[in-house]
Design brief:
The termini are far apart. Helix 4 packs parallel to helix 5 (89-105) and helix 5 packs across helix 8. By secondary structure, this protein is an alpha/beta fold. The chain is globular, with a radius of gyration of 18 Å. 53% of the residues lie in helices and 16% in strands. This is TIR domain-containing protein. Keywords: NAD. Residues 19-167 form the TIR domain.
């Protein structure tokens, strides 16, 4: 009997995700950091919601792995799609991780379309199409990654979200 309860405890402790953040904010800094994202972050903090944005990184930490870890440790991800979001390879890599966590861990994902048409995100047209024109895929590996970015954008844009066109 002792071994059975040990197995149950062991199983439950490894199968229940540990959330260090309620919300992970994914955004293109130059578009929204000092406007929409800052107001959203402040509003969440006021309500006692633990959220992560990249300014919480400590000096000297590796940005990439720390951000990916924060995504995994978040209960919900809010993706703020803005005109220059897809120009950032890092934003697109964040998006890949967010969509992976949605699929594998059941993470909730909320897209916010900030001054962009959701169909431009979904179909990679407008500023999103321009961004992909700049993401040159000269090797098979890069072509595969670009395709994964496109698929992630389409899937994220197909989720119910919010359309925001104010400051």
């Amino acid at each position: 009997m002792a071994s059975t309860s040990t197995q149950i405890i062991s199983f439950s402790s490894t199968s229940i995700p540990r959330w260090n953040h309620d919300v992970f904010l994914s955004f293109r800094s130059e578009d929204t950091r000092y406007s929409f994202t800052d107001r959203l972050y402040t509003s969440l903090v006021r309500r006692g919601i633990r959220n992560f944005r990249d300014d919480k990184l400590k000096r000297g930490e590796e940005i990439g792995s720390e951000l990916l870890k924060a995504i995994e440790e978040s209960r919900l991800s809010i993706i703020i799609f803005s005109p220059n979001y897809a120009h950032s390879r890092w934003c697109l890599d964040e998006l890949l991780k967010i969509m992976e966590c949605r699929k594998e861990m059941g993470q909730t994902v909320l897209p916010v379309f900030h001054h962009v048409d959701p169909s431009h995100v979904r179909k990679q047209t407008g500023s999103f199409g321009e961004a992909f024109d700049n993401h040159k895929a000269d090797t098979e590996e890069k072509k595969e990654k670009v395709q994964r970015w496109r698929t992630a954008l389409t899937k994220a844009a197909n989720l119910a979200g919010e359309d925001v066109n104010d400051g």
